[in-house]
Amino acid sequence: MNVRRSAAVLAAAVATALPAVPAAVADDAPPSGATSAPPSPPAGLYGRSDPTYDGVFRQSYALLAQHTAGVRPAAGAVGWLTGQQCADGGFAAYRSDTGRDCTAKTAVDSNSTAAAVQALAALGGHRASVEGAVRWLRSAQNADGGWGYTPGLPSDANSTGIVVGALAAAGERPADVRSAKGGKSAYDALPALALPCAKGGGFGLRDAQSGKLAANADATAAGVLGGFGRGQVVSGGPAAARQGTGCKDGSALTARQAAVNGAGYLSGLLRRTPHLVASLAGAADSPDYGNTADAVVALAAAGRTGTARRAADWLAEHAGTWAQRTGPAAYAQLIFAAHATGTDPRHFGGTDLVRALNATGPAPAEPAAGPAGHSREPAGKSGAGGPGTWWVVGVCLVAGIGGGLLLSTRTRRRP
C-alpha cells in the first residue's frame, strides 16, 4: 500500500471528525484506551507487517503483480483475499475474523474493493467475487459520478481513478456506470477534479478547510489512469501511442483531455528531477518512490515513454532499499512500472523484483516464467534508497499537521 492510500484513510477521518484513524478503517479495532500487540501475519498473506490498515490492498497488488510477471500465485494467497470479502461484495482494509459477518460498522472502502477487483479479474476464475464487488462499487457511487474513499465522502481523483480501473478490468464500460442520482459517470466527475492549465493541469487534492483543489502528483497519476480508462497494469514500452499533447481546458473539458493534461503535469515534474518528491510534512525534498512508480505507469498509459523510462531507470538505481523495507506492495508497484516501460522486472537494475516479491509470502503455485515482451533493462544496480516511505508513517506525519494539510476528502487513497 502506498502513501496515497494512507492519505485517503486520514482524509476520511478528518472529514468526518472521527476520534482516531484505526476506528475508521478496522472492523475490529480495540476499545478506546485499550492496547494490544500487533497481530501475527495471517497464513496466506504477503508481508509480515500488521495488516490492519492495508492487508487487502497489499495482497491485491502482490497477486496482480505476480500475474503480470507470469507467476501463478499460491492458492492459499488467493483464498486469503477472497475470504476477506463481505457478503455485500465490498472489501475492508482488513478483517481479522472472517468468521464473523460484516456489519454496518465494518469499514468497507472503495480503494480496497477496487484493488481486489483488479487482482481477481486478472487471475480469472472468480466471477462471483468480482461481480459482487462491482455491485458494491456501483452502490457507493456518488451523484457526481465519482467515488470517495468510503461511501458518503466526496469524490476524489484517487478513489475515482482506481475504481475506473477496476470496472475496466471487470469488463464494464466505465462510461456506462452511472450514478442512481444524477445519472453521471466517472468521466463526468474527473474533469471537475482537475486544475486548469494555468495551474498546471494536474488533478488535485481538496483542502480540508477551504475545499479548494491543489495540484497533487499522486492524485494526478490516479486521475490520468482513470481518464484513459486504464487499470494498474499498463503495457507500454517504445511502441506505446501518444494519447495527446498540449494542455486544454474550459467548459468542454473531457476526462480524456484531463488525463492528457495530467500527464503533461507529471512530465513537467519529472523533467526537473527523475523522481517525485514527498509532500508530507517532515519529508520535504525526499524522493517519493511509490508515487514515482505510479507516475511511470500513468505516463506510459499516456504514451509519454521517454519520461516514463527515465523515471523507471532512476527507480532501478535507487528504489531497492525502499522496496525491501516497505514490503510486497512496493515490489508490486515497481513491477507495474517495469512492465509499463517494457523492462524485465527480473533484471530491474540489480534486483529481481519477482523473486523478491515471491519471498514475502507463500511460494507461487508453479515456477516463475518470464513474461513475454520485456526487452529493456535499465542500467545500473539498485542501490541504497532513502528511508522507507511506509504508508503508516505517512499517516502519523500527516496526522500531526491538522487542518492545514491538503487532503482529498476521500480517498486514497494511494499504498
TrEMBL record:
InterPro entries for the chain: Terpenoid_cyclase/PrenylTrfase
Which parts of the sequence are annotated with region: Disordered?
26-49, 360-384
Q: Bias regions of kind Low complexity — which residues?
A: 26-37, 360-373
Q: Which residues cross the membrane?
A: 388-407
Query: What does the UniProt keyword field contain?
Result: Membrane, Signal, Transmembrane, Transmembrane helix
Provide the leader sequence positions. Answer: 1-26
Q: What is this protein called?
A: Uncharacterized protein
**Species classification:** Bacteria, Bacillati, Actinomycetota, Actinomycetes, Kitasatosporales
